[in-house]
């Protein structure tokens, strides 16, 4: 009985993996959804060439901001930043978060319950197969992180940010 069950699970896996791969490829092929602008017309866009971005950013910053990578959890000094001030985009210096919206989420990444109005844009990302809300700097389009619905009041949101994508300016 156990042997038959193992064969059945193995055969089910052989069928399931290709189906998931096709579903993922289909989802990512259409995942280039346009950014949902939360930005006002007052945020002037910054457009640079790929080589200009590479000269402006470190390799790790480029990976996160331009290639939508993710830094390893617990590696950012900004996760422990407690002073009053502003967290700005490391790509273009646009203020994204006030220290008043920062909180300890326990995730290992700097987390905020609200962004500065009109300074981020969102889109749906399917990189983990299921849809997630990704957010970017409204000025330069630099990838910052993802928004989850498990944050504290008053918004209930958690802007989970890559620390390497931010700079901190003390008040």
Describe this structure as you would to a colleague:
The strands form two sheets. The chain has a seven-stranded antiparallel beta sheet. A three-stranded antiparallel beta sheet has the order 3-2-10, with no helix packed on it. β4 and β5 form a beta hairpin. The radius of gyration is 19 Å and the shape is globular. It has helices at 2-29, 50-56, 59-65, and strands spanning 36-37, 85-89, 95-98, 102-103, 111-112, 120-128, 130-137, 143-148, 158-161, 166-170. With 171 residues, it is α+β, with helices and mostly antiparallel strands. Residues 10-33 have low confidence and may be disordered. It contains three helices and ten strands.
Provide a short characterization of the protein structure.
By secondary structure, this protein is α+β, with helices and mostly antiparallel strands. 25% of the residues lie in helices and 27% in strands.
Biggest sheet statistics: 7 strands, antiparallel
Multimerization state: single chain
Low-pLDDT regions = 10-33
Estimate the helix proportion, in percent: 10-25%
Structure annotation, total helices = 3
The pLDDT mean sits at 83
Number of DSSP-assigned strands: 10
Give the terminus-to-terminus CA distance: 68 Å
Strand content: 25-35%
The arrangement of helices and strands along the chain is HEHHEEEEEEEEE
Radius of gyration: 19 Å
Largest sheet, spatial ordering of strands: 1-6-7-8-9-5-4
Question: What shape does the CA trace take?
Answer: globular
What structural class is derived from the secondary structure elements?
alpha+beta
């Amino acid at each position: 009985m156990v042997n038959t069950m193992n064969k059945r699970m193995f055969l089910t896996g052989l069928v399931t993996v290709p189906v998931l791969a096709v579903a993922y490829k289909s989802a990512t092929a259409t995942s280039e959804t346009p950014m949902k602008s939360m930005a006002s017309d007052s945020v002037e866009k910054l457009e640079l060439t790929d080589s200009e971005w590479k000269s402006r950013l470190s390799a790790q910053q480029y990976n996160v901001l331009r290639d939508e990578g993710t830094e390893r959890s617990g590696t950012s000094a900004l996760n422990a930043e407690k002073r009053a001030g502003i967290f700005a985009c490391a790509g273009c210096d646009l203020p994204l978060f006030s220290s008043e919206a920062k909180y300890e989420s326990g995730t290992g990444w700097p987390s905020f319950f609200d962004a500065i109005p009109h300074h981020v844009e969102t889109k749906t990302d399917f990189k983990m197969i299921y849809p997630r809300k990704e957010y970017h700097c409204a000025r330069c389009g630099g990838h910052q992180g993802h928004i989850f619905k498990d944050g504290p009041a008053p918004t209930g949101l958690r802007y989970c940010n890559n620390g390497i994508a931010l700079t901190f300016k003390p008040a």
